[in-house]
Amino acid sequence: MRWTLDQLQQFVTTVESGSFSEAARRLGKAQSAVSTAIALLEADLGVDLFDRSRRQVRLTPAGEILLLEAQELLSQVQSLDRRAHSLSFGSDAKLALALDEALPYSVSGRLIREIGHYFPDVELTLLNGTATEVAQYVRHGRAQIAFHFIRGSLPSYFDQRHIGSVAQGVFVPKDHPLTQSEVSQRKKELVRYRQLVMHTEDVNEAAYSPKIWRSDSFYSLAEMVADDLGWAILPVHIAEEENYRKPLVQIDCPFLTLPPLMVRMVWFQGWELSQIAHWIQKRFIELLSDV
Can you give the residue ranges of the HTH lysR-type domain (predicted)? Predict the structure, then answer.
């Protein structure tokens, strides 16, 4: 066996980025270096990983199978590296925490203040993003733990725990015709107006209108509702903020089953939760239960 983990990483990155040039940019390498590394990997494995008869990157059948093996092997390597780091450098010296931007700020803001009070010596890195982005921060080692709204299932290389939930509802801008309609007629009337839908990869959100716009941010959806671009299902705490161009109004739609939005904590499988991580998990549950 002559192939290396670095070659496997270049192979996986090329697939994920969609081209050799983009993979080279992400990895900080020359495109020729990436192409050469993958050619050597193919020679060592004895199979062609990519169909080079096309302009765009496309895996061969063998490449599709070996991609899964390469991803699993790299995940195991990352797990080993994280556990070794935790054991050798001290579990509480540093912590990178990723937070879904749509979580209630009353919860995340207070949590951060309390971390500063109870753990003044910890070196904290705080990252924010969409639900998908914060999970990727954990996957790529930028964060040890993340809190986000559940938007579909997670790959097997994550560990997770349910933390709590927040309420959601149907919102329109103030003075929208739907605010004047009878509750019994709203199901029929909702289809007349554009629905603004939360967009997440590999998750099909419920759509009740044939006219749809999508965004990967609840805040972006709320801004569009305030601009009279449609109606949306939003977390109540986001819709009730006061900095929109128009106030948002929640309308009663009993025919829609809107369960609370579930929140989870995720970390990379094999990483031992430190003392501060256990404390954060417990405290987040407590704070979210009060929302």
Answer: 3-60
